[in-house]
Amino acid sequence: MNEGRCIKCGSCMQACPVLNDPRGSDFPGPRTVGIDAPRFSERLSMGKVSFKCTMCHACEWACPSSITITRSMIRLRGEMVTSMPSLPGHQRMRENIRRMGRTVDNDFRSWKENGEKALYFPGCIGLGKLPDMVSSVSRLLDSLGIAHDISSQVKCCGSPLLKIGADQEAEGLRQSNMKVFSRYDRIITSCPGCTYQLREVYGIKAEHLVEILPEGRFSSAVEGRWALQVPCHLKRGVSPWTADDMMSVLERAGVDLVRLPEEDRCCGGGGGMLSGFPDTSDSIAVSKADVYRKADVRGVITACPFCCLNLRKAGSNVLDISEAIIANR
Ligand code: SF4
Ligand code: SF4
Question: Which ligand has an atom closest to residue 277 CA?
Answer without folding.
Answer: 1
